Amino acid sequence: MSPGEDRPAALVQGILEGDVRSAARLMRAIDDHDPGAREALKQIYPHTGRAHVVGITGPPGVGKSTLTDRLVERYRSDGQTVGVVAVDPTSPFTGGAILGDRIRMQRHATDPGVFIRSLATRGQFGGLTPSTRAVIDVLDAMGKAVIIVETVGVGQDEVDVVAAAHTTLIVTVPGLGDDVQAIKAGLYEIGDLFVVNKCAREGAAKTVSELRALIELNRRPREEADPEAWVPAVYGTEALAGEGVAELAAAIDQHRAWLLADDGRRLAAWRRRQLRQGLLDMVREELWRVARTRLSDEGIEAGVDRIAAGRDDPYSAAEKLRDTILGRGDG
Amino acid sequence: MSPGEDRPAALVQGILEGDVRSAARLMRAIDDHDPGAREALKQIYPHTGRAHVVGITGPPGVGKSTLTDRLVERYRSDGQTVGVVAVDPTSPFTGGAILGDRIRMQRHATDPGVFIRSLATRGQFGGLTPSTRAVIDVLDAMGKAVIIVETVGVGQDEVDVVAAAHTTLIVTVPGLGDDVQAIKAGLYEIGDLFVVNKCAREGAAKTVSELRALIELNRRPREEADPEAWVPAVYGTEALAGEGVAELAAAIDQHRAWLLADDGRRLAAWRRRQLRQGLLDMVREELWRVARTRLSDEGIEAGVDRIAAGRDDPYSAAEKLRDTILGRGDG
């Protein structure tokens, strides 16, 4: 935080009391890589771990935002508070988030029980997954009961983001063409629930039965590992009309109950896997952050010069810079 | 390469002579993170830089593979050799590439003038962009005149991959729904040519005119930076029937000529940007590779234990591990 702004302690206090402006301020600080953000995140961390995180993903145009909107409506009518993290594909140059049809969500914008945050998938070194985890922690510490992470896209970064949710929904629509096979297969293993949206469309029955066949195919190995393994089911929705959303919300609750059953054994195992992955991601980001301070622009340009002049190859040039960072070189 | 296999020198010689089996062997070694692969890549590097790299991207289901197939056919009928790198979304668990409709490409598989390679977007620490660059270098050193990099997906990794092409094609189809706006905007800045495939479909004229409006909007800032800036155009194709493909191939040639004009000034600038980005990516990967050897499983588990027990937060635990790697801690 810049001088004159609230100290982390006051900001943290505000977030723990559910204050929207404090939360928004910390999220901006995270975006700006403000060193103060780190301190605040450390302080709120002990107050996280209560929210249920729902990941929603699938190819573009299947209605993920509309489905998110309907689920928010549902949770609100049950009196639960909700946080939404919308991870947007973005320009590699401008770094700006695109609002797109999130506009539709704005009817929840005046509801103090809902907090919506867009995250850009900016810059290669931004670290999408750590940033998303940080935003989820803020929403969790604010006391949101349910946090929905919605991401457009089928890229690895986006898969990693939704794989970090307690309950992951894979959304598709009938008649998307051949590529959908690849997406279904690629995302299959992280899906806890499958949704065929726009299910009144032609071909819906075929899409549902294809998904069911995929689930059946993978059922045995899952059940061998855990006799009470979760078996994903397929749900049909017409999100625009709100149809099938109540059943979907009930299925999310069932999956949550499954995670919590048995004295929370599964939840504990899930949490350990997440902590391990989150820790490694963060070490990697931290390492690069420190590394960049040890690399001078002149050093990088000299490396590029050598490669451009044919006096070095990129592999050898990278090794020299790596040794400079690790203090093994002459740099 | 494992003992008993060819030494890098023989492998490199084979690749420079265009030998398919040598190239396939090196690509497998790259996949396996074989240390010998690195040595071979260093040796082939001086022989790269001749191929024209064409990137093809866009949302799933728009017919990118079919378009790639048609472009390959076109280049082959002109007597040019072609390499294809298909970057597939994949499971974060199995790491396996999905063939999907690449099967369709198999008619080129028996043509010695075409080399097709699928790359999985595996594991978070795999480094998709460096792996793709390495495969492009192998195809380039083999003497392929044109290399097509095709990627499903709209994720940041995939954007980075196609942004590294000389000529980048953004493919869409009419009537994909609201999300397409986001994709178009997000990908707009890296697109040299825009393709509306399945252009006989309803709504094609609307999609074309929307894309043209986007181009027009961004024309002035481009032309202010360079009065002879490339202005992207929109092409309609029916890839399945081969319609519009000749015009598209001609446009790719025009873009190439534009890059080469003016004594190659633009190409040189492009190459410097690519080298710089490639070098930084490689330093980052190299650094993490060395870092992992300095991190013990016990050290990581101890960090997870501390967080799980509430005795540490992930940020502080990551800082401790980072210091261990950098030799600043007690680890």
CATH class of the largest domain in chain A: Alpha Beta
Helix content of chain A: 40-55%
Fourth CATH level, the homologous superfamily of the largest domain in chain A: P-loop containing nucleotide triphosphate hydrolases
Strand order of the largest sheet of chain A: 3-2-4-1-5-6-7
Report the CATH topology name of the largest domain in chain A. Rossmann fold
Taking all Cα atoms into account, the compactness measure Rg of chain A is 22 Å
What's the number of extended β-strand segments of chain A?
A: 7
Most extensive interface: pair and counts?
A: A-B, 89 and 89 residues
Q: Spell the H/E element sequence of chain A.
A: HHHEHEEHEHEHEHEHHH
How much of the sequence of chain A is in beta strands?
A: 5-15%
Distance between the termini of chain A: 33 Å
Domain unit count of chain A: 3
Account of the 3D structure:
- The structure is a homodimer of 331-residue chains.
- Chain A has 331 residues and is of the alpha/beta class.
- Chain A folds into 3 domains: 1-47, no CATH class; 48-262, Rossmann fold (3-Layer(aba) Sandwich); 295-325, no CATH class.
- The first copy, chain A, is built from 11 helices and 7 strands.
- Chain A has a 7-stranded parallel β-sheet with strand order 3-2-4-1-5-6-7, with helices on both faces.
- In chain A, α7 links the parallel β5 (167-172) and β6 (193-196).
- In chain A, α1 crosses α3, α2 packs antiparallel against α5 and α5 runs parallel beside α6.
- The first copy, chain A, is globular, with a radius of gyration of 22 Å.
- The interface between A and B is large, with 89 and 89 residues.
